[in-house]
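anyone seen this seq b4? input:
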Amino acid sequence: MDMVTERYKLTCDRIREIAAAQEVAGIYKEFYRKTADFILLVTDAYDNMGKVAGVEALRAQNASLYADIMGANYDESYANPSFACKKFGQEMGQMLSFLYTELRAMIPYAFEQRMEDMVIRMELFVEIYNAFAYAYSETALGNLPEKAAVPNTEDIKETLYWFVSDYSETDARQRVRSLVDADCDFAVRIVMDSDLNDISYLYRYGEYVSPDVEQMALYLNTLPEERIQLMADTCTEGYRIGFAKAHIDLARKETVDLRYMLGFERMVRAVILNFEKMGLKPTIYRSENNIFTKSVVRKKGYFGADASKQFLYDHKDDIALFLDKRLVNRNLEVLAAAYEEVKDKAAKYAGPAVVEVFGEAPFAPASTKEACSLDETQQKLSAELKGASADIVSRYIHQEEHSITIIAFPVPSIGERFPEIFDETIRLNTLDYTTYERIQATMIETLNRAAYVEIKGMNGNKTDLRVALYPLANPEKEAIFENCVADVNIPVGEVFTSPVLEGTNGKLHVSRVFLNELEYHNLEIDFREGMTADYTCTNFGSEKENKDYIRANLLFHYDSLPMGEFAIGTNTTAYMTAKKYGIASLFPILIAEKTGPHFAIGDTCYSRCEEVKVYNEDGREVVAKENSISALRKTDSSKAYFACHTDITIPYDELGSIVAYDKDDNAYPIIEKGRFVLAGTQELNAAFDAE
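predicted toks r here
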């Protein structure tokens, strides 16, 4: 018996004892009994892996593992910081809620048979329990009141802190290796070896499998093979074109990182086979949700349904319990070491191919005062960690040598017309890019003359922005905007640039928008010299809550972010599809950004690839690839990048005008009252007229 197996058996025995009798202060008995019972439920899944058969039995097992945080159950779950704090007080409640949440990360580890990842969390639980049991026993011996039978909160916090610090190395090594090493093939084997007509395969991941996930898999099984192949070909061809446009030799790469939601395995299998023909092997890793890797929004990897989005949101800042400069340095140290171990494989990593989904019920989180939150010092440390981590990754995975493609499809929860919307989405994803390329080239021809562009809202939209543009030295050979067709971002339909920050001023306003899966009402961002200067929304009752919400989820705790992109979306067909089916609020940004002008806060589209030459189809080089912030990479890269890029779109029906002005203030109207008016672009209005 190896050491980890012995630790596992000993810890299981101890947890069975705790489940049977809790020798702790009265108010904590239920917590330790329920938590021990939950751990044993997970270890039972681990010990009996492969023995539970049939969809009904697997569905019941899956439901039992996730039931505690689903629906009304979450109200009285120790995973809910509000409930835990009500029981145990703010400090202890937050820590025990964190502990229970971290133990829930064991569920997928059981299915992956990652015993060590389970053991370290089980041992943490026992260590914390023993501290409570010791305090209780000492109190009993001393005939002290029961309220004294609780360990010091600082001692418990220190135990949790060292768990986070010590095991950050284990997590980093596993996470980095799974990104670049095709031998980490747990999910690949599910996709390639399963009988996909038997949806019981969905339960092999250990993720929460909702009825929507099952229905998605069943629906894809009804589609003819040529339909599935078209979906896969659109994805992989976009990936290949991305490399070709950037003049990157794909033959030098070995692995491609696939990201998708459960239920899409039939398409993913076809994608894998397509990539194999290109000489690429897949890496498919889990979008994890533990203290080391939080996946609340913009999930990276494969993922199931969310048993509770509020649960994920409530725990997104649990690191606030521990975050200090020492922990930041520790995280950076182990990340660099993890990449150094696999640096040869990292050099051959080609980049991600992403299948996004849309149609799930919109989520507007509740503000939970008991949830952990970063203080001002920690916000700066979090931003520092995010930026420095991206710097480390860039040393091993060179952005200028890899590409990406993203494609999106609806899921059944979008409504009764799901099959119709799914077919329409395939049509959007396969629109003739040559038409858009031609029209967008006309638009770029005009924009190349411009010194700035003014964007104004209508119908209650308060947008009033002036965006400064990069001056061309040689208009015959250079371009300000890139002509974007269906490669890295599917579907077609935008021209985009990196604005000049100096001279970019005004207000951006959107009445309702979903960004990174979170809803915003009346989002307003004011820009001063290209940087975010003020912001608000109307999600919550107080201005502080609204500002904190934006700062945490759009600014990622930075004091200010630059406008990294200005783009004009041209896919009026996608816009009218959204209106036809009433799904505009459900579109992912991937499609939404093509349905009006959009503005990104954060890094530019060319972040860390500024030196790579990019050309439009007419042969002109796109030269507007940096701004005065990203230019700092030449002197201090820590100040040049933010490791974030969030697109915010104004829909056509809120768009009053887009007018380009040259250096002599001659006006060139492009859009007026939501319609394209520039000569050579009016063809885009046909979708509006077909309403």
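The radius of gyration is 26 Å. The chain has three domains: 3-166, 175-199+208-401, 432-689. kinda curious what u guys think
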